[in-house]
Each structure stands twice: as structure tokens, then as C-alpha cells.
Amino acid sequence: MKAVLLGTGWRARFFMRISHILPSVLDIVSIYTRAEERAEELRKEGYPAFSDLDAALSSAHDAVIVASGKVGFLDTLCYLHDRGERII
Q: For the chain, how big is the Rg over CA atoms in Å?
């Protein structure tokens, strides 16, 4: 499954580890974080990271994994729902 990952905390790192160990099961095609500095750090680690949600969602994907904190959580879910995204 190709997925966009929202978040970079401990929940998100869990999915990143799964993707690293089992890439045939979970392929994270992009990661969204609100902070550009954090996105830059992740890009240096080799991850396709963005601080713009629409840019992260522009990668071909099957689902969106929401592993973010509570700041903006409901608004983000509503936005993803309105886009017709499959949310995990």
C-alpha cells in the first residue's frame, strides 16, 4: 500500500519503521509536517517530506495515515474527508 504519512512524532516513526522493514506492505510516498525545519531534517534522512499538505498529497497514494498530534487534527480530518481520501 502506498501511503502519505501525516505527522513526525512517535506515532509516525512507528509507521516509518514498518515501511523500512516491510516496504512491500507499506510504502510511505510522502510525509507531511507543519514545520519546514522538520521537513528539511527528514529530507536529509532520505524521506520525501513536505511542510505543505497539498504537496504531500500530490504523490500517488492509496491512503493517508494520520499520526499527528491534536493541533489541527479535526480540521485536517475534515479536509481529507472532503478530498475523498482513504484515511487510516
A: 12
